[in-house]
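Recall that a protein's primary structure is simply its ordered list of amino acids. Everything else, from secondary elements to tertiary packing, is in principle encoded there. The following example makes that idea concrete.
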Amino acid sequence: MPLLDPPRPLSELHVLWISEGMSCDGDSVSITASSQPGIEDIVNGVIPNIPKVHLHNKVLAFSLGGEDFLKPFRAAARGELKPFVLVIEGSIPNEKVKTQGYWSGMGNNAQGQPITVPEWIDMLAPKAWGVIAVGTCATYGGIHAMAGNPTGCMGLNDYLGKTFISAGGLPVVNIPGCPVQPDNFMDTFVWLLRMAAGKAPLIPLDDLFRPTWLFGKTVHEGCDRAGYYEQADFAKDYNSPKCQVKVGCWGPVVNCNVPKRGWMNYIGGCPNVGGICIGCTMPGFPDKFMPFMDEPPGGSVSSALNKPYGLLIRKLRAITNGTVNREPKWRKPTEALTTGYDPRWTAH
């Protein structure tokens, strides 16, 4: 990502969160489990060196609903409310491919017709200080965008274009996950808030606009079961603590930190609790990871090639393990000192 000039420091901003696309609201629910920090700490101003935040989310913020909830969105669309961060949850349907009606919308226009999600994005994204796509549906299309869907769903970058730059000088920031890991979102959100306050450098993103420190490693690299793979010791069913590649785990090729971070307070996460990785953080999900629970392509070849090496390694490590599991021979009560100690600097 090209380096951009740092934005002007902000003391206050609004967060306009739209989950009226193809969404289950799972990402909104997920971040209620965040703890580093919690979303309530952000809203209540507990965290230093960030702007005052006003959150407008139908699940997380108090509102009477209806027009009361829509007021800040309409004001922002008119250019009367700024600065703000636009958060999109859920995939973006293609309203051009329908024959009648609409796929999804939020509120009505002056003619009493629904305002579609793409219309809201068109009005708000160019005016936003920053734009965040939260969850795999918003980042890459996710479940709703799989082959055979009638809605033509896509991710926010697909809709806005990869060259989109917000009013704050940032591309769309993608935080995938189905749903998003709560503290992954909060890490990214706090970095952006500190950027907005002029207290942090430009957020580091990879070529898919994901935070590099969260998605720079694979599931396999952070998995407690990875050592079993190296030793060609594979699980045959889901009750085993061993490597699950042969029962369908895609961990060696999926960018995700959940095995390392867990789900809540470093507890849980798919392989940590006996589940396989099905690649839900990846741009190719779900189409390129189906059928689920089958051995991934290349799994048979890699595990077959690894088998003789793994068996040898296991044998050698067993020998070494037996050696280091015994105390040194001089640790016993004898009359002679047998540790090898040589008091060569003192008189004999």
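The first helix runs from residue 26 to 30. The radius of gyration is 26 Å.
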